[in-house]
Amino acid sequence: MNWDRIEGNWKQFKGSIKAEWGDLTDDELDEAAGNREKLAGKIQERYGIAKDEAERRLDKLAASF
Asked: For residues 24 and 63, what is the distance between their CA atoms, to the nearest angstrom?
């Protein structure tokens, strides 16, 4: 998935993220602002999953976007 495209459509993609990971705050999502590494880190912190698992799930979500 091209994360440049995600960054360019961040507001729309943010809705998909909120649907998948509803415990993430708007502030956390705004801080990540389309940055895959930051977003995976926020998911890891909030949900206590491994970063590689967070990245894998993010990539799966991004592929459907």
From this structure: 20
pLDDT tens figures, 9-23: 898 999 999 999 999
DSSP 24: S
Assessment of whether the complete model's pTM goes beyond 0.90: no
CATH classification at residue 33: 1.10.1470.10
Residue 35 contacts residue 43 (beta carbons within 8 Å): no
For 31, the domain range is: 3-63
In the numeric block, the tokens 């990540």 are attached to 32
Would you state the structure tokens that stand for residue 49, as one six-digit string?
Answer: 């999953």
Total count of domains within the chain: 1
Written as six digits, the tokens of 63 are 């592929």
